[in-house]
């Protein structure tokens, strides 16, 4: 029995699971950009909003920003330390969703606290700031539209509430537009999510196909090597058999399934008195066996060829070239 040893098959994993793992990896790879953006924009907002009467509120908000940044850094470090991150992709996605929600709530809190208490210039600054962080989140969290929807909602909802309850007509009108902007952004994120997930599934399928192709190539190479080894063994056996037949003191014939002589050794020439050139290509039964010999006639040969079982001790009368009749004992091996 030949046993082929190939590469171990890949662990069972669906294309959706692989795509989820890839999306989680991309989100965490982009998380440092979000952390840096939160810190830099938070510092800029703290500087711009700093006023004596709002000092304590600005300091408290800045501390909150630093806490969110530190938590994000801790989450990123934990993800990179875990060896089974791909096997727990859903848990890591949920943790990232909570992180995005808290991060967005930090900006939503800035809108709720500082927008009503500042002048027109600071309000314009806050509006542009919130629009920027909302749009920036689209690039960071596009690999998972639910995460982006949570993040953007925590930014937009408090700001919309402040605008709607400001008592100023222009702000109330803007409050109607902001949710529309949010819906469009979530729609774009959903489309990007689908495109990225489809790309990840295709990459996974291509990777699996490549692995299976490589496994098949390895098995084919092993089987080719086994065939080459078997061929060398057969050739070696053939050389040994040829050497044995040539030097054997008994007559040895090589015949095909019809009984046609293909080759014979020198002892066969001596025993039967025929040169090999006279017998090769002729039927052994019709040439060397008398027609009235019942032990080894053409019907017996056809039955033997059909069964393909070795036979030994088959005694039959044979005719030499000089007409002398001799009794031979045949051993036949298919």
Structure notes:
There is one protein chain. It contains ten helices and four strands, in the order ααααααββααααββ. With 334 residues, the chain is mainly alpha-helical. Strands 1-2 form a two-stranded antiparallel sheet. Strands 3-4 form a two-stranded antiparallel ribbon. The two termini are 21 Å apart. Mean pLDDT is 83; it is low at 1-12.
Brief account:
The chain is mostly helical and 334 residues long. The protein has ten helices and four strands. A hairpin with a 5-residue loop joins strand 1 (253-255) and strand 2 (261-264).
Q: Which residues sit in consecutive blocks of at least 5 with pLDDT less than 50?
A: 1-12
Shape: rod-shaped
From the alpha-carbon coordinates, what is the Rg to the nearest angstrom? 45 Å
Structural class: mainly alpha
